[in-house]
Amino acid sequence: MSEPAVLVLRDARALREGDGVRFRVVLDGAAEPAFAVRWHGRVHAYVNRCRHQSLELDFGDARFFDEPFDALVCTHHGARYRPDTGVCFEGPCAGARLTPLALEERGGELWCVGKMGT
Questions:
Q1: What is the CATH number of the domain that holds 105?
Q2: Structure confidence by residue, pLDDT tens digits, 67-107
Q3: Contact indicator for 86, 98 with CB cutoff of 8 Å
Q4: Rounded to an integer, what distance in angstroms lies between the CA atom of residue 23 and that of residue 5?
Q5: Is residue 1 part of a domain?
Q6: How far is residue 33's CA from residue 67's CA, in Å, rounded to a whole number?
């Protein structure tokens, strides 16, 4: 049984370059914090859990990027993730990967439809 799709944004265009948006998604029957960001014109979404200690990456403010906007950063311990792949390339969990989420645009709205590849 697949999980229900979740509306992320009513207007997908509202997510501007470098911006993030938080939402919740049900995965394997459990509600999980999640986020989406726009980076280099594309929207990417992940479960909002650092691979180091399962803490949310942000402080609840949907700010996920470092200052030069080239990495998603865990505010707790500084793990740095590639925005397009979710792979940690620096920090205490180097080599680990955020859980990627699949997105769809439907009539200008942005929807999360579950884990990537499922």
A1: 2.102.10.10
A2: 889 999 999 999 999 999 999 999 999 999 999 999 999 99
A3: yes
A4: 12
A5: no
A6: 23
Q: What is the pTM of this model?
A: 0.93
The answer to whether residue 39 is domain-embedded is yes
Q: Give 65's contacts (C-beta < 8 A, 6+ positions apart).
A: 18, 20, 37, 39, 71, 72, 73, 83
Residue span of the structural domain in which 80 resides? 6-115
CA distance 80 to 72: 6
Cα(103)–Cα(25) distance, integer angstroms: 12
Nearest-angstrom CA–CA distance, 36 and 43: 7
> 43 vs 12, 73, 76, 113, 116, CA distance in Å?
9, 17, 24, 14, 13
State the total domains in the chain: 1
Of 26, 55, 31, which Cα lies nearest the Cα of 115?
26
Asked if residues 25 and 114 have their Cβ atoms less than 8 Å apart, the reply is: yes
